[in-house]
Amino acid sequence: MKTGKLSIWLLTAVRMLVGWHFLYEGIVKLTDPNWTSASYLASSHWIFSGFFHWIVGHPAALAATDYANMFGLALAGLALILGLWTRIAAAGGALLLALYYIANPPVVGSEGLHGEGSYLLVNRNLIELAVLILFIALPTVYHYGIDRFIRYIRSKLTNASGKPRYMGEIPSEALTGRRELLKNLASLPVLGALGASIWQKHKFESIEEKLLLVKPDAVSSATLMNTHFADLKELKGQIPKGKIGKLEISRLIAGGNLIGGWAHARDLIY
């Protein structure tokens, strides 16, 4: 079976994208002390819902489930990005996704949590599950990664000794020495990009928190990357007031969201 270079890169990109999603999901859950799978499991109303509800009702079982989710997602994601133990990582990730799907499938009449979109039978969990099953079945020589480079090294040793050490065909383009190493380590820049993105996101989200810990400001809009924040003392004059009967009140009233229905919903520290 021959695989073109474009196909190899496309398969590699798909594997890394799924790995990025898994790794970031795991990191977010690991760094959030309040995260738990309790609400997701409690909303289950399909097959095995009794088992999922039982987990929620037993703290030890729930804690074990949470840790399995957090570390399972992170480790599977890291391995998928690197292309290391790809089949094992894909199998572990597929198992997690299968459980997510069974707990809350988008079936007719289901009252479960369906996430950010509208689905019918097919949702993100099922699609990624199918992708991971593909990588379980697909030989590792058909996408770049550490697994492929290990097979390349073994092939060179086999060629030198004349004794076969594994089953499987190495594509001719794999036998290119230094280039092969660079291709199979293409995941390292991806990991660097993920780390940089996480840092930038954390830096942006912490601006408001840092400001609130220092002093209040007169900015009442969404968080902005400003270099100067007005102090309350800089407000000049009186805010216009109105009267309702004998009651005099400020015209500065918290606005309401006509679509969402709430008056204020931001990640402020109250």
Topology record:
Layout: H1 5-31, H2 38-42, H3 49-56, H4 59-82, H5 86-103, H6 124-137, H7 146-161, H8 178-184, H9 187-214, E1 241-244, E2 247-250
Antiparallel strand pairs: 1-2
Helix pairs in contact: 1-4, 4-5, 5-6
Question: Main sheet, how many strands, which sense, barrel?
Answer: 2 strands, antiparallel
- The portion of residues assigned to helices is 40-55%
Q: What shape does the CA trace take?
A: extended
Say how many strands there are: 2
Uncertain parts:
164-175, 219-224
Mean pLDDT rating: 78
Q: How far is it from the N-terminal to the C-terminal residue, by CA?
A: 61 Å
Oligomeric state of the chains?
A: single chain
Q: What structural category characterises the helix and strand content?
A: mainly alpha
Strand content: under 5%
